[in-house]
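Tip: read the tokens left to right.
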């Protein structure tokens, strides 16, 4: 795994925010990042266009991670989107939520925004996608190596993650 120092630092910073006691799941980490930033992060399942796994939307008062419904490796996608956020990449600014339907219906726009390699929809460039992928891989790897009573990424059920 050849993650850059920048990515490694970001993963360390996120893991530092982990609760000192109890289980450390990916969704708990997302919550911890949210509290650290003083800005809510919402997780939502969504019907995204085919081939799109996740999307990070920035609203005025909160961030929303949309994860494709029924995705088998949703934790990877969630970690990827979290990577974009903590690495300071640009999300998709949402001027008006009501435009979402229009956005999703426009295949031209989707073609423009969709990064074919990662299946991530966002305006960020190739480098940002690679960074987010490296971040996701390293974060999940490190989570998986925590003592078993603390790492619970496997045990978290979708219903608990997405209220
Ligand atoms: Zn991405």
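Filled-in amino acids:
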């Amino acid at each position: 795994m050849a993650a850059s120092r920048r990515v490694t630092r970001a993963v360390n910073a996120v893991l530092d925010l982990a609760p000192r006691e109890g289980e450390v799941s990916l969704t708990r980490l997302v919550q911890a990042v949210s509290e650290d930033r003083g800005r809510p992060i919402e997780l939502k399942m969504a019907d995204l266009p085919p081939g799109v796994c996740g999307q990070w939307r920035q609203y005025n008062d909160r961030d929303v991670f949309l994860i494709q419904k029924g995705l088998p490796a949703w934790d990877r996608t969630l970690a990827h989107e979290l990577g974009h956020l903590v690495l300071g990449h640009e999300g998709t600014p949402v001027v008006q939520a009501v435009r979402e339907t229009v956005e999703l219906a426009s295949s031209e726009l989707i073609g423009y925004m969709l990064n074919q390699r990662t299946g991530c929809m966002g305006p960020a460039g190739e480098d940002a996608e690679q960074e987010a992928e490296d971040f996701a891989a390293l974060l999940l790897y490190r989570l998986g190596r925590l003592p078993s009573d603390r790492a619970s990424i496997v045990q978290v059920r979708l219903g608990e993650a997405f209220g």
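The chain has seven helices and six strands. The CA atoms of residues 19 and 32 lie 8 Å apart.
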